[in-house]
Amino acid sequence: MSDQGTETAHATEMDREDPTDRAVRRDQAVRAAVEQGLVDPASPIIGLLDVTGIRSAAASLRAAFEAVTPPGTPVLHAFAVKASPLVPVLRLLRDAGIGAEVASPGELALARAAGVPPAHTVLDSPAKTPAELREALALGIAVNADNPQELARIDAMTRSAPTTSPIGLRVNPQIGGGSIGALSTATATSKFGVALLDVGAREWVVQAYLDRPWLTRLHAHSGSQGMPLEMMVRGVAATYELAEEINGRAGRQQIDTIDIGGGLPVNFGSDEETPTHAQYARRLKSRVPGLLDGRYGLVTEFGRSLLAKHGTILARVEYAKTAGTRPIAVTHAGVQVAARTVYAPASWPLRIAAFDAKGRPKSGPNVGQDIAGPACFAGDLLAENRPLPLLEQGDYAAVLDTGAYYFAHHYSYNSLARPGIYGFATKTDTGVDTVAGTGPGAEAGTAAGAAESVTFATVREPQTLEEIVAESGGARRDALRDL
Ligand SMILES: *Cc1c(COP(=O)(O)O)cnc(C)c1O
Asked: Where is this region: Disordered (predicted)?
């Protein structure tokens, strides 16, 4: 497998930032968050976003596909808003040349609030209402129809009101699932898109295009976490072959854009980013060269792979105890910020890093311990028997790689408040203070030095108790008494 060895070595140099840099920035941010009082006994949990890391991920994604397509090939990277539904994040990505993939009226509203232009927005939900479709078509947002009934609705709408929206159809190449059933979109019975291998389905799809000259895009999303890269490539290849067949039958390049979806898996086991967007793009280039030879425009819809590694949950250890000889750190991070990990720990293991009460990485012998959350059920654990330096009362547990589908996906169990989310940048980011402030040596620097080298911006305020009451029917206290 010397080929893969080369690919990996190549990847390390060019496709991604040094994972150590990311870890150093994260440690600095944790230290600074404690020193600056962002997290403290009264605000015992926060989410942190590494702005430098997000910018660099966006740049590498763009570079990855530029490297495998001829200059001038239209490529829209539409970030899957569901992975991080936060307006400042969408705005940051917009500035980095990334659009938005939305799948609900709420996500579309967020993308619009962030200023993502309609031409950089793609609507993909499997349950679009007539009102949603009408709005998208009026705005000129790209729409991927999920099924024949939705296509019939679009037929009627475009007949009565012409649209500038590029319109496509989502297909399910039925290539099979990955290791996580709930996230596998390309199984034989997945609810998404037109199931291509079903009897008569392929012919129906081809005819649907021949009947509708304005149907110019083809969409498939064969994700997600737990899918081997090779399987994703097979899904894209099947989609490309269908586009070629349709264009052949039409006798023209009717399908001008292929939307390959997102779904690149993320390595939750270390700071290493693997696979990279560039590895995926190169694999597509060698396996589906026709897709990238400039005849087709491209849309991608990556979510997790852009954001996961750039977020950290930082939670205070409220109490440290033991039960049946097992040490337990009772923290403020549990099911409300990590629902997937708590309910399906085998599919969604997360790394945890131990910090002391001053926000410095803890050292000492590893001790198997449970990292528990604040919710009132026994299974509210982020990790069981995890070997870590022993966490003590007042220390901090950092839950790593939680920038996508974690702290931005609050689950209001026990009416636990949504934590505040803060973006951070370290001084090195400006290129000004590369030597003095924040090199690896800065770890050993003074506390003040560490704190000053990190700047925070509020992305989302912590939820207040007044908001919890208001969102829980507080203004309708007597609503049920009068029935
Ligand atoms: C969820 C989703 C994505 C993003 O998936 P990731 O695994 O976060 O990259 C992209 N496209 C569609 C249609 C989706 O449903």
From this structure: 1-24
